């Protein structure tokens, strides 16, 4: 694998490339509008799914993304159709923000054959290769080397494609994180490591397992452009995503973005989250991603409450249609399951 000269990776302040690290001067009104719709869609989709889970229609584990929606929305809106995405066990938001069909997503969660993986993947294993979504992963940190591999493959083929690699603060304490980050750094790969820091690895608080809780500094140690941002503000995430993709397309990747956020409930749908300090939960609820996204639309696009309520009604109708589609879909046949098992055994 050939490498560029070091000087190309770290231009001085007078270099024209240095400008790609600056946020855009203006924000077209359609950006906050799209971000609000995405954030609200993710929220409404998961709240509906939790009800379906309580009714026994969704089986297995279900890890809500409630409170973290702005990260997926902001990063994915900054990507192009050509780019890759690697998700996590908490990945419904990533799929939706990448443009997944809500009906097929709902069908997958309900274990129906019309789902993205024929109903065999469920909540933690949705993939959509047609949109560059290389899939969710039930193994913490398991998607990180897959994303680096995708970025490496794009380099080998001479393709201008960026790989957005979503992972958690818990994954940052897995050896594969630093190994993959270092490999991406020495090969200047077009990879964006999106560290979704919700401050808990299941029930373990970050400060009890990391002497310095500012995890973006780990990227600096490998010579990687690294930032810590407000992960609850979709517009701030979007602008960071724009900067990161610009750096990668100028041959200055990888980039590490630590997006600070907080879960609005426990690790999974049956975890009451009683270990989470009430004052911290209250603080982050006061900075709810849906509310912040709504405020951005009103401030930057001149939207009214009626407009926002209209968007919510449209999204709610889309989700109900997705539920109806999934419920009406057939379950995978036993014969098809046996055949798939035979082919891949």
Compact description:
This protein has helices at 6-9, 30-54, 69-78, 92-97, 102-109, 144-157, 175-186, 217-220, 234-249, 278-285, 289-301, 305-328, 334-344; strands spanning 84-86, 163-168, 191-197, 200-201, 204-205, 225-230, 255-260. It is an alpha/beta fold and 345 residues long.
Describe the structure.
The structure is a single chain. The protein has 345 residues and is α/β, with parallel strands linked by helices. It has one domain: Rossmann fold. Helix content is 45%, strand content 9%. It contains 13 helices and 7 strands. It has helices at 6-9, 30-54, 69-78, 92-97, 102-109, 144-157, 175-186, 217-220, 234-249, 278-285, 289-301, 305-328, 334-344, and strands spanning 84-86, 163-168, 191-197, 200-201, 204-205, 225-230, 255-260. The strands form 2 sheets. The protein has a 5-stranded parallel β-sheet, with helices on both faces. The longest helix is centred in the N-terminal third of the chain and has 25 residues, at 30-54. The protein is globular and about 50 Å long. It starts with 5 loop residues before the first helix and ends with a helix. The model is unreliable at 1-21 (pLDDT under 50).
What attributes does this structure have?
Rossmann fold; 13 helices; globular
